[in-house]
Amino acid sequence: MKKKYSFHMLILMFCFGFSIQNINAQFRIIEVNPTTEQVKIKNFGSTTVDISAYRLCARFSYNALSNMTLLSGNLNLAPNAEVEVTVLFSNASVLTDASSDLGLYLPAGSFGDAANMVDFIQWGAGGIGRESQAVTNGFWTAGTFINIASPYEFTGSATDYGVGFWDTLLDVEDFDGITKFAITPNPASLNLNVTIPSHIENATIKVFDLLGKKVIERDISNLQTISINVSKWNTGIYIVKISSDDIIQTKRFIKQ
């Protein structure tokens, strides 16, 4: 016998499913340090939820948050609160500085099912681990990856997804204006001007697109300002990397 659902019942079922989807979408990975294997998650929503049974997955290795070392916060995650853990996987070498992926998943269900994925990032290379599920969900663009120095910090809001919303998590000393370089204008359509602090010598500038492809590399030794013609570049987000001795700094700019 076929089941018959009233119009009101169908509406209730739809609303219930929609509310569950919204609750799951409120959790985002906001910091990843592959070197120390520390991961921070934030609740962007308005509901307190116990996420202890939620799972992290890297290169097909996974574990529940409750089985990881709690560093700060509470897994019964309140609105606007953050929780930080040291990850623990059966394969201890999956979360590497060189390249890896990291997905946040619901407490149950297959990792191969995109519907069970809550958030995703990858760095160092494209096509890692569960990228295809992230692409299906609109969390990530195929082949893109974070191509800047770790640790990584999410700079967007709850509705922002993709590599363009990830940047280097700078240490306190990195915010010293004396050591920072500047890029103007941003966004740029014709020329991008890069200004280097006068005390930095023997520097190299590299620019990458979001696929990790190097667009240019130039020696800027003894130059305080360099102008780069970007008029023929494709529109999108680019990563500018300045390196000199033991100093490495990155910034993003938008090509219009």
Features:
disordered N terminus, six-stranded antiparallel sheet, four-stranded antiparallel sheet, mainly beta, 38% strand
Give an account of the 3D structure:
- The chain has 256 residues and is mainly β.
- The chain has 2 domains: 7-168, no CATH class; 173-255, Immunoglobulin-like (Sandwich).
- It is built from 2 helices and 19 strands.
- The chain has helices at 7-25, 131-137; strands spanning 27-33, 38-43, 49-50, 55-58, 61-64, 69-72, 76-77, 82-86, 100-105, 117-123, 152-154, 166-168, 182-184, 191-195, 204-209, 214-219, 225-229, 236-244, 247-255.
- The strands form 5 sheets. The chain has a 6-stranded antiparallel beta sheet with strand order 6-8-2-1-11-12.
- The relative contact order is 0.11.
Beta-strand fraction estimate? 35-45%
Query: What is the average of the pLDDT values?
Result: 82
The total strand number stands at 19
- Helix content percent band: 10-25%
List the helices and strands in order. Answer: HEEEEEEEEEEHEEEEEEEEE
Shape descriptor reads elongated
Q: Which regions are unreliable across 5 or more consecutive residues at pLDDT < 50?
A: 1-5, 9-23, 171-178
> What strand order characterises the main sheet?
6-8-2-1-11-12
Largest sheet: 6 strands, antiparallel
Give Rg in angstroms.
21 Å
- Secondary structure tally, helices: 2
Structural category is: mainly beta
Give the end-to-end Cα distance, rounded to a whole number of Å.
Answer: 60 Å
- Integer count of domains: 2
